[in-house]
């Protein structure tokens, strides 16, 4: 199955694609399926059960809030972040919820939404079970859903119990590995972006592709700008102060001095990544790229390219996004982009790899150099654990994005200095990442039971 630019980049809300974007979509999908089967009018009661890593870190990541909003019919790509707090407070105060904005029922979160931290559903650690009952207390429908990273959601039904697999029109350049991608580009004399564009245009119109990528770029830009001007303390109880606005002010007020500092560019890249991830931690609107936890890396590297090198206007932006999506799709197909499955190498590592390859492409690198940069971007994130303090996507996540953005640029520069020949292929490093994730102790996979999460005292 072809995964395109809108599978890897989705506009959503913070702080976590697995914990907020996925559950919101799952809750809405569950009720929509009841509507399709004419059961929606019969709903009298809804229960939501949350399992595994989703239960362990769900409160800190806003899963409870996302589920309430999803049951009300909100979607991550169009919800106004400014209404979230008020909407959820109303549900909690009145113990009533307006399902899909069409039917009000009683809903007491304390009783109707349960966390099962030690239990797992069969297919993934980020599991949710939705149950709907009629006015006699008889079960109308129960379905398990899994938030598998990057806002992707699958249900037991999707996994083959009773629904057919999604049929997709065949794309002209189908690839499942880095080697296949390289071979296709060589055979047809295409760049990665040209190949991806040809595949996309089988599925959507050129206008839809362009306007969709414009929306993604605009959402990334707006997110950076909001993060650069918003001060305060991040929610969740860690009392983490937002830093980006102060950094921005400092950088703007010292422009003459910056002329003497050849490394000042790093300050700007750090700033843009911090700005996005502070917005994400605050529950603001971000682009999952390919996850929310790692949402700052690609916008920071893309703005770096745009502000300092881009001579092609929006075409440069489009090629960057298309190339990054091609690389991200390889991780999604052959390993994982979920911190709960493979640790932070699956989030920050993948975003770093995508950004490194995409930057190399738009800086004029060959397809072999693009593959080399993507490989370097992951090779030096192998084994990166997921250990968010307090279950919040704040420490180490926010700074980790700044480090990932700078590493991506360095990976690109290394690849551009070479000729594309290298020892470890992208496919080998993706497989190594998958194996490393499988071997990693579960405590280092978004449970907040290991690493920094247990070695830093939270007062
Ligand atoms: S440590 Fe990495 S994988 Fe874990 S929540 Fe933070 S950004 Fe995501």
Question: Can you give me a brief rundown of this structure?
Answer:
By secondary structure, the protein is of the alpha+beta class. It folds into 2 domains: 16-161, 60s Ribosomal Protein L30, Chain: A (2-Layer Sandwich); 178-455, no CATH class. The protein has helices at 5-8, 17-36, 52-61, 63-71, 84-94, 109-112, 157-161, 178-188, 192-203, 206-229, 244-252, 255-258, 264-281, 297-308, 314-334, 339-342, 348-362, 367-379, 397-417, 426-439, 452-455; strands spanning 10-13, 45-51, 96-99, 103-106, 113-116, 126-133, 139-149, 152-155, 285-288.
State the order of secondary-structure elements, H for helix, E for strand.
HEHEHHHEEHEEEEHHHHHHHEHHHHHHHH
Shape descriptor: globular
Task: Report the average pLDDT across residues.
Answer: 94
The number of domains: 2
Structural class: alpha+beta
Residue share in helix: 40-55%
Distance between the termini: 47 Å
Q: What is the makeup of the main sheet?
A: 5 strands, mixed
Uncertain stretches of 5 or more adjacent residues:
none
Q: Count of DSSP E strands?
A: 9
Residues in β-strands, percent? 5-15%
| Rg | 22 Å
Ligand catalogue: iron/sulfur cluster
- Give me the number of helical elements: 21
If strands are numbered along the chain, what order do they take across the biggest sheet?
Answer: 5-2-6-7-8
What does it look like?
By secondary structure, the protein is α+β, with helices and mostly antiparallel strands. The chain folds into 2 domains: 16-161, D-3-phosphoglycerate dehydrogenase, domain 3 (60s Ribosomal Protein L30, Chain: A, 2-Layer Sandwich), CATH 3.30.1330; 178-455, no CATH class. It is built from 21 helices and 9 strands. It has helices spanning 5-8, 17-36, 52-61, 63-71, 84-94, 109-112, 157-161, 178-188, 192-203, 206-229, 244-252, 255-258, 264-281, 297-308, 314-334, 339-342, 348-362, 367-379, 397-417, 426-439, 452-455, and strands spanning 10-13, 45-51, 96-99, 103-106, 113-116, 126-133, 139-149, 152-155, 285-288. The protein has a 5-stranded mixed beta sheet with strand order 5-2-6-7-8. It is globular, with a radius of gyration of 22 Å. The termini are far apart. Residues 293-294, 339, 344, 347-348, 386, 388, 393, 396-397, 400, 446 line the site of iron/sulfur cluster.
């Amino acid at each position: 199955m072809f995964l395109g630019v809108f599978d890897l980049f989705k506009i959503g809300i913070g702080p976590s694609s697995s914990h907020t974007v996925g559950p919101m979509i799952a809750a809405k999908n569950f009720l929509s399926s009841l509507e399709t089967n004419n059961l929606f009018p019969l709903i009298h009661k809804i229960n939501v059960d949350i399992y595994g890593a989703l239960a362990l870190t769900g409160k800190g990541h806003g899963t409870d809030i996302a589920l309430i909003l999803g049951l009300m019919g909100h979607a991550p790509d169009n919800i106004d972040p400014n209404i979230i707090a008020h909407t959820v407070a109303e549900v909690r105060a009145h113990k009533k919820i307006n399902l899909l904005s069409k039917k009000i029922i009683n809903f007491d979160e304390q009783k109707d939404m349960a966390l099962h931290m030690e239990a797992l559903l069969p297919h993934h650690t980020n599991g949710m079970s939705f149950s709907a009952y009629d006015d006699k207390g008889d079960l109308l429908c129960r379905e398990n859903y899994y938030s598998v990273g990057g806002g992707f959601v699958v249900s037991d039904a999707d996994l083959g119990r009773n629904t057919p697999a999604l049929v997709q029109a065949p794309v002209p350049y189908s690839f499942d590995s880095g080697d296949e991608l390289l071979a296709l580009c060589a055979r047809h004399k295409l760049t990665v972006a040209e190949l991806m564009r040809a595949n996309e245009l089988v599925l959507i119109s050129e206008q839809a592709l362009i306007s969709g990528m414009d929306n993604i770029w605009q959402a990334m830009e707006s997110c950076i700008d909001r993060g650069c001007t918003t001060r305060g303390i991040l929610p969740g109880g860690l009392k983490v102060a937002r830093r980006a606005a102060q950094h921005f002010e400092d950088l703007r007020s010292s422009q003459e001095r910056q002329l003497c500092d050849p490394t000042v560019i790093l300050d700007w890249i750090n700033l843009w990544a911090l700005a996005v991830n502070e917005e994400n931690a605050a529950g603001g609107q971000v682009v999952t790229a390919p996850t929310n936890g790692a949402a700052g890396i690609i916008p920071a590297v893309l703005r770096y390219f745009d502000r300092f090198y881009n001579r092609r206007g929006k075409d440069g932006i489009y090629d960057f996004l298309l190339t990054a999506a091609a690389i991200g799709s390889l991780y999604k197909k052959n390993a994982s982009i979920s911190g709960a499955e493979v640790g932070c190498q699956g989030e920050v590592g993948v975003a770093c790899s995508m950004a490194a390859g995409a930057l190399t492409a738009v800086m004029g690198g060959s397809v072999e150099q693009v593959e080399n940069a993507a490989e370097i971007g992951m090779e030096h994130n192998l084994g990166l654990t997921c250990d968010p303090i307090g279950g919040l996507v704040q420490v180490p996540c926010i700074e980790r994005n700044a480090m990932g953005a700078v590493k991506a640029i360095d990976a690109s520069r290394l690849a551009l200095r070479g000729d594309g020949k290298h020892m470890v292929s992208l496919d080998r490093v993706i497989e190594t990442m998958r194996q490393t994730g499988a071997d990693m102790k579960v405590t280092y996979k978004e449970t907040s039971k290991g690493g920094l999460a247990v070695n830093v005292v939270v007062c």
